[in-house]
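Slide 14.
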Amino acid sequence: QVHLVESGGGLAQAGGSLRLSCVVSGRTSILGSMGWFRQSPGKEREFVGAITNNWMNTYYANLVKGRFTVSRDNAQNTLFLQMNSLKPEDTADYYCAAKRPYGGIWFESDYEYWGQGTHVTVSS
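Slide 15: predicted structure.
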C-alpha cells in the first residue's frame, strides 16, 4: 500500500552534517504527516521530528531543535532530515515514518507505515 526507503546514513564527525532522504511509493495520496524516529542500543525508539502535509508545520524533539530540519518535497514524494551540528549522542538507527491524516504525531504508535532504517554514526 505504502512503502518507504531511507538513505543517506553514514559516518560523520562531531559538528558535521548529514542529510537523510526517504522516498515514498504506493498510495501517497492517503498520507498526512510524516516523521523521523531514531533508536540506539538499549534505548526506546524516540521521536526526532515531523512535518504536516498542507501547512508544512514542523515539530521537533528538544534535543535536536535548532540543529535538525525536517522538510518534504511532495512532487518527488520525498521526506528529508537535514542534520547539522551533529553530536556523538545522535548516533542511532534513523527511521522514516508516515501516517494517515488523523491523530497525533509524537509517538511511534501514531504512524502506520515505516521504512527499514538507515544507520548514523557520529564520532568525537
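Speaker note: The chain has a mean pLDDT of 96.
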